[in-house]
Specification:
The protein is an alpha/beta fold and 292 residues long. 38% of the residues lie in helices and 13% in strands. It has an 8-stranded parallel beta barrel, surrounded by 8 helices. Strand 6, helix 9 and strand 7 form a beta-alpha-beta unit. The longest helix is centred in the N-terminal third of the chain and has 17 residues. The structure holds 3-methyl-2-oxobutanoic acid. 3-methyl-2-oxobutanoic acid binds next to strand 6.
Length: 292
């Protein structure tokens, strides 16, 4: 990897790691330990070197290079137009930023729409691109057919994070950005998919816009797969937010479940640290906030 800007250059210096030499790199065994101990896992999206380094210094444990970058960085109206090459570029930038500050965060690269849908082999080729860009894990959306893909990747040594509930890559099929898993049948399907993904070897599962009671129930049931909620209540093993949302910078409507952590924070780093503390302390989210 190249380093185009020397530390101390006029183009911005990255922050030092918060406790140099003290924090150990986040690993899969560590994440499992956190899940078992009920220590909430804090995840945040980041798409470039500087914000990734700031998030790491603030104590964020997992950085998701999400395909939400299509919306917040590229100005697209959905994530459907994001390509694998774009994801590779941003993953590499994030990893470079973390290396510069000896960061410890676990990096998850999001497999974009169309990069894993054709076959297991296509998924392996796409996942290889993101792993070689420096990701520690890849994320893919959906249940049912994806379990076979997850199994294929995990067998080949690629850690996988699954994603159920509101899956933005299928927003057109879902009919909009709305709550999923409501009603007995939808809840039963979501639960079945979650168990299939755990059995296939997914180590993490993002639950997006799912009723709080359902995600809490799933969190109790899944002992080999850490649930990470976004608009899914307080009962999950961890939380994730889109960075721009929690910093209060958003081109559209702010989702109801988001909190603007810049309010009262003197810097981005402190806003991120407040997010970390709020999740760890069980102060964010508050179930009543989104009411589903
Ligand atoms: O792409 C993304 O940022 C995501 C999160 C919303 C979980 O998938």
């Amino acid at each position: 990897m190249t380093q185009s800007t020397a530390p101390g250059s006029p183009y911005g210096t990255l922050p030092p790691a918060s406790v140099p030499g003290k924090r150990k790199p986040v690993s899969l065994p560590r994440l499992r330990e956190m899940q078992a101990q009920g220590d909430k896992i804090v995840m945040l999206t980041a798409y470039d070197a500087t914000f990734a380094a700031v998030a790491d210094a603030a104590g964020v444990e997992c950085i998701l290079v999400g395909d939400s970058l299509g919306m917040v960085c590229q100005g697209l109206t959905s994530t459907v137009g994001v390509t694998l090459e774009t994801m590779r570029y941003h993953t590499e930038s994030v990893v470079r930023g973390l290396h510069r500050v000896q960061g410890t965060a676990w990096v998850i690269g999001d497999l974009p729409f169309g990069s894993y849908h054709e076959s297991r082999e296509q998924a392996l080729r796409s996942a290889t691109v993101l792993m070689q860009a420096g990701a520690h894990m890849v994320k893919l959306e959906g249940g049912g057919w994806t379990a076979e893909v997850v199994h294929f990747l995990v067998e080949r040594g690629i850690p996988v994070c699954a994603h159920l509930g509101l899956t933005p890559q299928t927003v057109h099929a879902l009919g909009g950005y709305r709550v999923q898993g409501k009603g007995d049948e939808a809840a039963a399907t979501l639960k079945r998919h979650a168990h299939e993904l755990q059995d296939a070897g997914a180590a993490m599962l993002v639950l997006e816009m799912v009723p709080a009671a359902l995600s809490a129930e799933l969190t109790r049931e899944l002992d080999r797969c850490a649930t990470i909620g976004i608009g899914a209540g307080a009962g999950t093993a961890g939380q994730v937010l889109v960075m721009h949302d929690m910093l209060g910078v958003n081109l559209g409507k702010m989702p109801r479940f988001v909190r603007n952590f810049m309010e009262g924070a003197p810097s981005v780093r402190e806003a991120m640290a407040a997010y970390v503390q709020a999740v760890k302390g069980g102060h964010f989210p508050v179930d009543a906030q989104h009411g589903w």
